[in-house]
Amino acid sequence: MDTDMCDTFITCQECEKCIPGPAGRKYVGCPHDCARYVHCPASGYDTLEKMCPHGLLWSNGQQKCVQPTDSECDVCSEKLSGSEVWYSCKEFWKCGGDHGKLQLQCCPDGFLFIAGLGCMKDVDNSCKKQCYAQPSLDDQTKNCTYRPSALGAYWFEDLTSDLRKTRACPVGTQFSPQVCQCVMAYDLPPAVSFNRGCHTMVNMAFRSRDQDTENTPSKVRYKNVAYINNESAMLRQDSSISFWYFSNIDMGDMLFLHMRILPELAAPPQAILHNGGCETFSKPTLMVGMDTADTISEVVYIFGITLDETDEMVFLNVTAKRSSEYSDVLLRFDGSTLDVEVNGKMAESKFETKGSIARSRGPLQLGGKACSIGYNAFSGLVDMIEVTTCGKD
Prior knowledge:
InterPro entries: Chitin-bd_dom, Chitin-bd_dom_sf. The structure is a single chain. It contains three helices and 32 strands. By secondary structure, it is mostly beta strands. The chain has three domains: 27-121, no CATH class; 146-184, no CATH class; 198-390, Jelly Rolls (Sandwich), CATH 2.60.120.200. The strands form eight sheets. Strands 17, 19, 20, 22, 27, 28, 29 and 32 form an eight-stranded antiparallel β-sheet that branches. Strands 18, 21, 23, 24, 25, 26, 30 and 31 form an eight-stranded mixed β-sheet that branches. The chain has a four-stranded antiparallel β-sheet with strand order 1-2-3-4, with helices on one face. Strand 27 and strand 28 form a beta hairpin. 36% of the residues are buried.
């Protein structure tokens, strides 16, 4: 079900299939929205799009709005039990496994519904729709058929049917039992620190997208990324790879980063890797970027981190020769020392007090603009990336 009315092109096509209604009038259901229908007029007149009364669906066979169980239009067609389908910015259909178990439900106060993500915090109060289906947050949490999963914050147990099922939250969200929904990670209280020991959370060799996704425990979202000859990834100004596991989470006491890149540096300065995406309007607390140097034969690599006890990012630069070959870029942070390296050229910065990298609402992101600090997106080839974090001993 789309958030928009049937567009004119679809309307004109569908009117060719119109069924005569009372007094010779003709109506047909919107092909992408069971709650909407089109009045097909006489030749020379514009079509008129209409919406069924609240909670009803259109029936082509009966030529009227009816109860969901009486409509041949199936809102949940080809969707799993427990799926949520858009009805308005405030309400959604809850699929119950068969056509007869369809329910219209409402997001809690202060939340709006986004297709594919569920109920999200309405930060700018943009949804003005009223809620008729489910009046209170207390009722929603009291009757919640979802439970947290032992697999972690990105999963939940679905108790809707007789058989308990484990489901994954959409990319970039975590399950919140407080609102019985998967919500954006930065809408939740800060997540717990990593478990004891070291974990490689990003491991990509760019041989195939399926293999990279399987080798990376963090949830991955790709945007306009092209895999080249099964050996590298091409990123442009509109490309990015987001690792949402790192949103609003303690990165641990130690962090190790290794990338092999071949930059174009078409629009400097560029953010290669950072956790301050434009989507969350957050400042990065970890960044690897690059800029032009004083001479055309060199390039400046810029490394920055913000500790959890401060609000200012500490920068460390390395000037390296431009190269037509891939460059190895490394970062090591152990809580008190930041070591960086580009093609064997190293730099180091020590901190007076030991700490960890501050949390950020944004995901860790390869490519993409860092809007809050004015860096453009990285453009070029990436041969590999590996990110390992270590918790408390």
